[in-house]
Write a structure and sequence with these properties.
alpha+beta, about 35% strand, elongated, three-stranded antiparallel sheet
Length: about 260
Amino acid sequence: MGGPTAAERARTLAYGMGDAVLAAPGVPHAPVTAYATDLDGRPLLLLPKGSALVRALDGEDDLPATLRLCDVAPVPLADRVRGRAWLHGWLTELPPAGLRSAALRLARPHPRPELLDLAAEEPPRDGGWTVLTLDVAQVEIEDAWGGATLEPEEYAAGAPDPFVAIGAGILTHLDSCHRDEMKGLLPVSASPTGDPGGLPEVRPLALDRYGMWLRCRAPSPDDGGTFDLRLTFGEPVSDLHGLRRVYRHLFAHATP
């Protein structure tokens, strides 16, 4: 397999590392302070109790809404958006009994002070923050692989990429310390002049267990400008040990 499925990519986007906005009919769009998902991919959304969206739920069992997600590359590039997803469904507010487990789940990717009270053994009822959940009815995703629409069962059956929480650190390290080695990963055919000296400049764009996306900039706009190239690993990797092994092999066989 050369890359993640649409469900895996959607679950990775929903893990909680990107930017998120909630949209509901008749309510101003609400930026989500922090978000994560439970084991089934159901979004957990941290919001101030005083937000218009939380107030709209007062006295209602649920509220139709869309969670808009944007995945942005950590490396500074001209176009940093790597993908977008739209999770359509029904919002509800977690009851007090469910706040502690949700706060602990949220704290894994987001160790924020707002979660301290919610993670207490008995979360305060008069606190300033709450957690909403979104029961997913449909998912749309658009990224470098193309567009896809997923049913909730298909989305729930996917799994986030194992490097989703640490990928930003890996990419920024590669960009700051290994640009020359990454340039050597390109085939000579990527050089407009046909020799290694004409290879494009390379920046790391995205990482997953199956490979990497590289942002390439040709030496001259006449040579093709900027383009993205997929580098596929020989086999999928699932942890840092496997990823280091792949990098050692790739850099050892890179073009001098």
